[in-house]
Design a protein that fits this description.
It is built from six helices and five strands; from the N terminus they run ββαβααββααα. Strands 3-2-1-4-5 form a five-stranded mixed beta sheet. The chain has a single domain, classed as Nucleotidyltransferase, domain 5 (2-Layer Sandwich). The protein has 198 residues and is an alpha/beta fold.
Length: 198
């Protein structure tokens, strides 16, 4: 059961990212401010929610949130500044786009670069504990999945429609056969070791 809020006095925004560990594609982040009465029985950490339910939740969150925003950092910029800084930058960009200014930030994970002077709490596995972070995880995940499905049309041999750029065995085999493309993260050690073919 998710906690609706961390506290009851300040306006909270939950923040989460998607795609941090991927071999290819951007990292996405979302920031969400929910109303006091917000509730959906399926809301949870996006990794624990079926794809069809994530789509349903995205529509519900966007219709009912006080404010929400999504931002992305490209694979090229990830290579320039590193994935951790890129994740924080995407969160900062999402927070900056909120129509309502939050007074407290709930960040999924154990580290964060402070945004302006807004206080924050880092919460490990926060997307499975607080509704605002779970909502942010749903938006970040669905927006990123949609983006990778669009890239799949240009690069179908990597099957990003299915693996979304993660380092699955199928994706690693495709890299071995077709090499890397412009959307792969060159700073990641993703050139696969020789895979035995049976």
């Amino acid at each position: 059961m998710l906690e609706p809020f961390f506290q009851n006095e300040l306006t909270e925004a939950g923040c989460d990212e998607a795609g941090r560990g991927c071999y290819a594609g951007p990292v996405f982040a979302a920031a969400v401010i929910l109303p006091k009465e917000f509730y959906h029985p399926l809301l949870n950490d996006s990794k624990q929610v079926k794809e069809s339910h994530r789509r349903e939740l995205r529509v519900f969150i966007e219709a009912n949130a006080i404010s929400y925003a999504v931002a992305m950092i490209s694979s090229g910029e990830i290579d320039q500044i590193n994935i951790l800084k890129a994740s924080f930058k995407a969160m900062h960009m999402a927070i900056a786009q909120l129509n309502t200014k939050p007074q407290l930030l709930l960040i999924d994970g154990n580290r964060f670069i402070p945004y302006k002077r807004i206080p924050h709490h880092c919460i490990v596995k926060g997307d499975g504990k607080y509704a605002t972070i779970a909502a942010a995880s749903i938006l970040a995940k669905t927006y990123r999945d949609e983006y990778m499905e669009q890239l799949h049309e240009q690069f179908p041999h990597y099957n990003w429609k299915k693996n979304k750029g993660y380092g699955t065995e199928e994706h690693r085999r495709a890299i071995e056969v077709h090499g890397l493309c412009e959307h792969h993260r060159m700073s990641f050690n993703i050139i696969p070791k020789q895979i035995k073919l049976f």
